[in-house]
Design goal:
By secondary structure, the chain is of the alpha/beta class. The protein has helices at residues 15-29, 41-49, 68-78, 92-96, 129-133, 182-189, 210-219, 237-242, 253-260, 277-282, 302-318, 320-331, 338-349; strands at 2-6, 34-38, 53-56, 82-86, 103-107, 119-122, 142-145, 169-173, 198-203, 223-227, 246-250, 265-269, 288-291.
Length: 350
């Protein structure tokens, strides 16, 4: 049995649940069993709606160190042999209390420091062997490194065959939540008179500005909203992306999905855990990475950040040669089989 400890709420992006469910489906395909252990109603609903057994524990998502006693009981009760952990709230002490009870796989975005576990997974672009050295002690744990392990859903495996010569449709997303209301503020500032483009806007479950976005869409026929898109929706996220020529998106799993579909994009970071987009820019996988961290803090820099994001978007629309360069880099980096590779490693631990 594989246990997966992950959360999703207005503070934790739904991308964590999505990548874990993608891996879980591959484990099931190989004959394994999976149970999700979560703290939040949203995470519980997402897992159950996708057919997974789920246990909700009575601890907040950021109370990881006090949940370990409960977690050990669940590990023994359900016969969990491997625990896949996907969280920014875990600590070395958290892993130390579990590592002798169960085989631990840690889905990690940063490779910041050593923690006791049996398998560490970091699929992001730009990580190298020097980064791996930081997380090893006596040669352990085993590390799955690089974009060949990017856990993409099946729908993202087939990328576009060519770059659109002109830009007509733009995908816009901040993920499952938009606490800073970047989406509506971006659309209010965009120059629709100069650029005759159509925005396809993904509205997440935890958006606080739905009414504002609905008003903007009602006033502008070149804005289409897509609400609460999930793996079980009638329209797939990949279909929305493929209908677009380019994208503007927050950092996270979406950046990798767009790269797999060969869609050039501008990405922005409004949280520290999204800073990996700058490595994507360095590798030529996105057109531009824009630093929006600190947005909304009232320090007078908000308009400067929005100007940078808008200018990057206009360049994305105007410069077909740069879009072609990004497309060529995307073609050879992410193949869509990462989740299957991770699942095989997890099965070996069971």
């Amino acid at each position: 049995m594989l246990g997966i400890r992950v959360d999703a709420n207005k503070y934790i992006a739904t991308g964590h649940m999505m990548r874990c469910m993608t891996i879980a489906k591959e484990v099931v395909r190989l004959g394994g069993k999976v149970i999700f252990v979560v703290s939040d109603d949203m995470a519980e609903d997402m897992a159950r709606n996708n057919g997974f057994e789920t246990v909700k524990i009575e601890y907040e998502y950021d109370e990881k160190e006090v949940e370990t006693e409960c977690l050990i009981k669940l590990i023994k009760q359900y016969g969990i042999k491997v625990l896949l952990v996907d969280s920014y709230q875990v600590t070395k002490e958290y892993f130390s209390s579990l590592v002798d009870v169960v085989n631990i796989a840690y889905l990690d975005d940063t490779l910041a420091e050593y923690v006791p576990c049996h398998l560490r997974i970091c699929y992001h672009v730009g990580m190298c062997e020097q980064d791996v050295e930081r997380v090893l002690e006596n040669g352990l744990p085993k590390v799955l490194l690089g974009p060949k392990f990017f856990p993409l859903r099946e729908e993202f495996k087939d990328g576009k065959l060519e770059v659109a010569p002109t830009v007509e449709d733009i995908f816009l997303s901040t993920g499952g939540t938009d606490p800073l209301r970047i989406t509506d503020k971006f659309l209010e500032r965009f120059d629709f008179e100069t650029y005759r483009v159509h925005f396809h806007v993904v509205v997440g479950k935890m958006f606080s500005s739905v009414e504002v976005l609905e008003r903007l869409a009602a006033e502008n026929e070149r804005i289409t909203l897509y609400k609460n898109i999930s793996a079980t929706s009638a329209i797939k996220m990949s279909d929305i992306m493929k209908s677009c020529d380019v994208a503007v998106t927050a950092g996270g799993t979406t950046v990798g999905e767009l790269a797999a579909l060969h869609i050039p994009c501008v990405a922005f970071a409004f949280a520290n855990n999204q800073e990996l987009i700058f490595k994507y820019e360095d590798k030529g996988l996105i057109m531009k990475a824009v630093d929006m961290r600190g947005f909304g803090e009232g320090n007078g820099a908000d308009e400067v950040r929005f100007k940078q994001l808008l200018e990057a978007t206009y360049e994305l629309i105007n410069d077909s040669d740069k879009r072609k360069c990004v497309y060529k880099c995307q073609e050879t980096t992410i193949d869509g089989n990462g989740a299957a590779r991770i699942a095989c490693e997890l099965m070996e631990l069971m």
